[in-house]
Amino acid sequence: xxxxxxxxxxxxxxxxxxxxxxxxxxxxxxxxxxxxxxxxxxxxxxxxxxxxxxxxxxxxxxxxxxxxxxxxxxxxxxxxxxxxxxxxxxxxxxxxxxxxxxxxxxxxxxxxxxxxxxxxxxxxxxxxxxxxxxxxxxxxxxxxxxxxxxxxxxxxxxxxxxxxxxxxxxxxxxxxxxxxxxxxxxxxxxxxxxxxxxxxxxxxxxxxxxxxxxxxxxxxxxxxxxxx
Length: 228
Hints:
Helix content is 41%, strand content 25%.
């Protein structure tokens, strides 16, 4: 089993496939590399490929009418994107950019159609599409809050649920997020995000451990929001 075959066999949509099946699936993917801040695709380029991140990290964002950028989500190693446009033929209202030097495996629309004929792969795609709908609803809920404190709390809580790893000291968000990136997720300015994070640290609701956000009790993030 070569390197890419072994890697793809650990990706969620393929983990139920037999080794013989993976040997036929893996050659359908071609490897591409991107520099830090290099655009992987723009909205108008969607519907051509599905992408699986082999190394690095990407952000999904869209430009707002005021010229600012709103980050919708991040994708890490082993995650994939672009499949929705291949399924329904629509465009994705977002741009995807490499946050760090990134290696990606891509599959064309034609070969993706071959993948969908496998029942196990099809079932995993359905589960992932449901998860992405739920993530989108959670993001909308965050942006519905009218003040910065609530937006940061909501964004951190959502990240705990989707990127959290339980440790002896609480939930660690397993994502190296800068203040600017968190601000763009919450739809606020970097300066405001820094102020709110400082306040949360002073309240012992949040700490920073080796560059990761650590939340001792994620439910405490939401307590002030229950009475809005």
